[in-house]
């Protein structure tokens, strides 16, 4: 149950992060920025690094990373902590002939095949 709730929150955070990034104003988006107008030489533009959009984007990104790690942890521990990983060779050694599906034999009547 908690896996589905975290997954829904994760998808909503992902969509919100995409929307926030697309809504933000780019560093070189002004026409005057190409000619040195304003504070275009600074890293974060004229507004600075502490704008509301920057803080909101950082918060949503942190939530996205936290839910990513939580979902990864829940996915790896789905079978419980007591289950040991099984190698591919151990899985192959445990297959019995009854587990392998039989392949149908080729038809013996080939009279309809042109020469």
What layout of secondary structure does this protein have?
Elements: H1 2-23, H2 52-76, H3 88-93
Summed up:
This protein is mostly helical and 115 residues long. It contains three helices and no strands. It has a domain of 70 residues.
The number of helical elements comes to 3
Structural class: mainly alpha
Q: Terminal Cα separation, in Å?
A: 63 Å
Helix content: 40-55%
Which regions contain 5 or more consecutive residues with pLDDT less than 50?
A: none
Major β-sheet profile? none
Q: Please compute the radius of gyration using only Cα atoms.
A: 29 Å
- Sequence of secondary-structure elements: HHH
Mean pLDDT: 76
| Beta-strand fraction estimate | under 5%
Explain what this protein looks like in three dimensions.
The termini are far apart. This protein has about 120 residues and is mostly helical. The mean pLDDT is about 75. About 45% of the residues lie in helices and about 0% in strands. It has helices at about 1-25, 50-75, 90-95. It has a domain at about 1-25 and about 35-80.
